[in-house]
Write a structure and sequence with these properties.
With 149 residues, this protein is an alpha+beta fold. Helix content is 47%, strand content 19%. The protein has three helices and six strands, in the order ααββββαββ. The two termini are 13 Å apart.
Length: 149
């Protein structure tokens, strides 16, 4: 399988941008609902409190997604390291990982899948600073790092 780090990066960025757009839309809809409630004289206080709570929840999600976008922007796509660290694409005998932000599974153009994980992920802690040929055990399964991109 030919690994295209730039494709993985841009697919990750697309996923983060979709999240940002989704959260912004949710917040806009909540704002509209709150403004509509202000016009009514018999609005329900509980409903307004729920809307405010939802707005704050989506504001936090939006903040997290924007932080993920900033982290992605810090990745040097041309940098190569022999050891697993932030920005690495790690090919194991079982899966493919992109150490960047916690997006989860991303499907590539060729149909293959890569797991975008953060440096806080438990599996990253097991792979950190390892290189091709090194082994680690995750969820009671032995894995071998085939290549670090």
């Amino acid at each position: 399988m030919a690994i295209n780090k730039k494709e993985i990066y841009y697919k990750s960025l697309e996923a983060v941008n979709r999240r940002i757009e989704k959260y912004e839309k949710e917040m806009d809809m909540i704002k509209e609902s709150m403004e509509a409630n202000d016009v009514k004289t018999d609005y329900d206080e509980d409903n307004k409190g729920q809307l405010l709570g939802d707005f704050e929840k989506y504001a936090e999600y939006l903040n997290q997604a924007q932080e993920m976008k900033e982290k992605l922007a810090a990745i040097d796509l041309d940098h190569y390291s022999e050891t697993v660290n932030f920005g690495s694409v790690v090919e194991t005998d079982k899966d493919l990982y992109f150490v960047a932000v916690p997006i989860g599974e991303i499907e590539l153009e060729d149909g293959s899948k890569v797991f975008s994980i953060s440096t806080e992920a438990p599996i990253y802690e097991l792979m950190k600073d390892k290189k091709a040929g090194d082994r680690f055990s995750f969820k009671e399964k032995e894995r071998e790092i085939k290549k670090v991109h």
